[in-house]
Amino acid sequence: MEIRGPLELPARREDVELVTLDGLTLVGELATPEDAAPAATLVTLHPLPTAGGFMDSHILRKAAARLPALADLAVLRFNTRGTTSPRGTSEGTFDGGDAEQFDVAAAMAFVADRRLPKPWLVGWSFGTELALKYGREHDVEGVILLSPPLHRATDAEVAAWAQDGRPVIVLVPEFDDYLRPDAARERFAAIPHAQVIAVEGGKHLWVGESQTRRVLTEIVAAVNPSALPLPTEWPTSD
Q1: pLDDT tens for residues 66-121?
Q2: Cα 175 to Cα 153: distance, rounded to the nearest angstrom
Q3: How many other CB atoms sit within 10 Å of the CB of residue 150?
Q4: Is the pLDDT of residue 238 over 70?
C-alpha cells in the first residue's frame, strides 16, 4: 500500500489537554509509536489561525499520521488559543503571537510531565514565529521552521539564536508567498549555524505528495536520521 494522502499508519493516539499559565485549556493530540519508545518528540506549532491554520493543517496532520510508525517519533499537535479543529476549540482568543507564548510553554510543560524524549519545535508559517520568539526559553533540542514569513519575529529575536548552539533548520519553498530562499538566507545570516534549505518547486502550503515527503524527510533527517530513507509503501495484511 502506497503511503500518501490522508493514510494513517498505526500509532497510539490520545486526545490531550494543555493548561496554560493564564488559565486556558488547549485541545490537542499526542501520537506515539505503537510498539516502541519514541526516539524523539515533535512539538508542532500550526499556521495562522485567522487564515485557516490549526492542528490539522496537512503537513502536521501527516507528520502525526506517519512518523510514529516510520521514524519512531512522538508527535504533539494542539490548537493555540481560540483555534478550532475537529478535535475541538481551545479556550481564549487569538493574540497575534503575544499571549501564545503561554501556549508554547503549556506544550513544553506537557512534554516534560510525560517525559517525552528529545523535543524539537516544528513550526509552520505563523508557528515559526512562535518557535523563534519563544523557543529559546525552553528545553528543546532545536527548531525546524517550515515556510517562515518572518512577519512577527523581529531581527533581534532571530539574531538571539546566534548565541544559542541548538540547531535552527529552515525549509524555504522556492515559490513562497512571503519569504523566498535568497531573502531567507539574508534574514537568517544573523544565525551563523542556521541551515537554510531551499526546496525546489515548493510553495508556502507545501501542496502535493512530493512536497509532503520532502518536508517529512527533512524533519526526520534533523531529528532521527537513522530512520531514513522513509518508506513509501506500507505492508498490508492478507
Answers
A1: 999 999 999 999 999 999 999 999 999 999 999 999 999 999 999 999 999 999 99
A2: 21
A3: 19
A4: no
Contact 4, 233 (CB under 8 A): no
What does the alpha-carbon distance between residue 31 and residue 174 come to, in Å, rounded to a whole number?
31
Do 148 and 122 touch, CB atoms closer than 8 A?
no
- In whole angstroms, give the CA distance from residue 56 to residue 108: 19
* pLDDT tens for each residue of 148-185: 999 999 999 999 999 999 999 999 999 999 999 999 99
Grid look-up 508559517 returns 125
User: How far apart (Å, rounded) are the C-alpha atoms in residues 156 and 200?
Assistant: 29
Cis check for the bond before 38: say yes or no (omega within 30 of 0): no
